[in-house]
Structure formats: C-alpha cells, structure tokens
Amino acid sequence: MGYEACGTLQSQRATASTAPAVVRGRDHSMHVEVIVEPGGKGIVTGYPTNRPRNP
Fold this sequence. Notes:
By secondary structure, this protein is mostly beta strands. Helices cover 0% and strands 44% of the residues.
C-alpha cells in the first residue's frame, strides 16, 4: 500500500543529527505536523494543527 504526499512539506531539524525532525505539510485542507525519527527511520507522531482539540 503506498501513500502520496499532498501539498508542500517543510522540515525543521535541530543541529544534532540524532534529533527528531518536525515536518509540516498539508493534506487537502488539513494542516498537519509530523515528528519523524532521525534519518527518516519512522514516524514518532503526527497531528492536525488547524482543527479543534478533541476533549
């Protein structure tokens, strides 16, 4: 099963190569932020940033 990226992605990486990267992007109208393990080995977590929090 494959996934296709939609929109643009921006990455902010700390100076240490062992630190996780923060990737921000958009999937249709939903803005998402994803924390990625060093070297792109996997996703730590991801969440929408333009939606109300789920109580």
